[in-house]
Amino acid sequence: MWQYLLEDDGSGNVKATKVREFGIWSGQKEIEAIAVDDRLGYVYYSDEGVGVRKYFADPDNKRAAQELTLFGNEGFTQDHEGICIYEVDDSTGYILVSDQQANEFHIFTREGDSGNPHAHQLVKIIKVSTNESDGSEVTSLALNEKFPQGLFVAMSDNKTFHYYSWVDIAGSDLKVANP
What angle do CA 51, 53, 57 make, to 5 degrees? Predict the structure, then answer.
């Protein structure tokens, strides 16, 4: 993985400067999806046939090159695909990871366990109507009466988008953000 600093070059154009190379890749398949948790300062990526890898997002962090954890490496049918982050508040929420061939999303704790912020526990698996979901996004913002606690969107391989209210995803198992 390469990380770039994007900035104005002084003439109104964007200049990209590589600031680091980091990460482990299993060599199986590909790096499929990346999500950055701006508030907590982590970057997550799917090592497609292996699991989700976690690093510090700040390239200046002393431990920036050290893998913090590998999770989601059990219970997936085949490919780990899209990753998105639902924020309940500034430090809690969920990491959703697509199990592409099963048409499911595995939901992990964002904050990890007490005492170990890198122990992301599986809390729920949801079946969705996607076919081979490649991508997803989620927001905890109240959008309207249909999406009062946020919206989850997943894309099928034929570019069909599927929309779900976070209330339906959460059910009675997961927390919702305060509007």
Answer: 155
